[in-house]
Amino acid sequence: MNRRTSPVTALRRTVVYAVLAAGALVSLIPFYWMAVAGTHTSDELFHSPPPFLPGGALLHNLESLQHSVGFGRVLLNSLGIALVYTVLSSLLSAMCGYGLAKYRFRGRGVLLGVVLATMMIPLQVLLVPLFQMMSSLGWIDSYQAVVLPFLANSFGILLMRQSFLDFPDEILESARIDGAGELRTFYLVVIPTARPQLAALMVFTFMAQWNSFIWPLLMLNTQDKYTVPVALNTLTGLTHVDYAGLMLGSLLATLPLLALFLAFQRQFVAGLLGGALKG
Asked: How far apart, in whole angstroms, are the C-alpha atoms of residue 187 and residue 106?
């Protein structure tokens, strides 16, 4: 028998939904402004009052953006770099997390402590030695210099370790008795049980690499190799700033992330919660 909702409970729900709806609307304001600003010229954005409705300069801004930075090419550059980095880093994180969770070896605790300690090292401290290392290898202005130095993701290793801690050792022993090797056991038995955490890690890793700015700015010198954040940075000059181009480029660069997050929203939330609650 269903109980009727009390007036107090109904009022609380109404207030909560109203607050959430207001918060959602406020969070959409920056995106709306980027969409509006991308359809006006830079001069029109400084009119008083500023425009709040779309204008007629969208095609002009698109052409200007393509002419200035080759936006289509840099989108493909960012997409390729982010996909390669996401796949390799997530695979490496899963393998390291599995090793720390299920293998018993001397120094495992020390190694785990080192992984935790690396999370407290700011990126700025690593820039100079990493730049010298890439220079000595002759990798300046190359994609591998952008991707390889940060494949070992301490956050991803810890997240995957937490997801593997409660995996039954008996299943691993059964797979080994049946003749499955370590790699086959890992890919066919262990990985399928950690799909939510792995999906969450891949979404997080893709977003982090897509938005990465400082390291690609240092490594990439050729405009045809720029990523989206680096290319948009070139629109900001000492005497002129293409605000309309920046707004339109930022909006176009945000759309793939929004689509990715909306497509994997459940896996992202479930993976983070599952990794946090296990162990």
From this structure: 25
Q: What is the dihedral of CA 136, 140, 144, 149, to 10 degrees?
A: 60
**Model pLDDT, residue 238:** 67
Q: Are 215 and 227 in contact (CB under 8 A)?
A: no
Instruction: Name 164's Cβ contacts closer than 8 Å, sequence gap at least 6.
Output: 97, 98, 101, 102, 190, 194
pTM of the model: 0.84
Q: What is the C-alpha to C-alpha distance for residues 274 and 267, in angstroms, rounded to an integer?
A: 10
| DSSP string across 84-136 | HHHHHHHHHHHHHHHHHHH---TTHHHHHHHHHHHTTS-HHHHHHHHHHHHHH
In the chain, which stretches have pLDDT less than 50? Answer: 1, 275-279
Neighbours of 78 (CB within 10 A): 23
DSSP assignment of 40-77: S-TTGGGSSSPP-S--S-HHHHHHHHHHHH-HHHHHHH
Q: Which two tokens stand for residue 269?
A: 């939330």
Q: Which residues have C-beta within 8 Å of that of residue 208, sequence separation ≥ 6?
A: none
